[in-house]
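Question: I have long wanted to understand how a fold can be written as tokens. Here is the record:
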Amino acid sequence: MIELSLNPKSPAYRVDSIALAKRVCKNLTLEILPFKQIKICGILYRGEHSTSIALNAGRSAGGRNFDCMHELIHYWLHEDEPVFQCIEGNADVFLE
């Protein structure tokens, strides 16, 4: 924290993961949708030419911010996996 001169008590400390995703991810569609299942937090789908992240509209803004960053980590670290569905209280479920 000191090396980056970040103050955790400052409002500027918080990372807006949705804005970050829109700014740095090429060919990314990000939507906030009313999922039927409240426990589904987010879904990442990587297509041949584009990638989509869907976030659950039923979650709080803070929850969606967390979920978006979680999906971004899948986007950056799991390039071979086409789909991730993240469910609250469970490990990530890979869909074939």
Remarks:
- The longest helix spans residues 61-77.
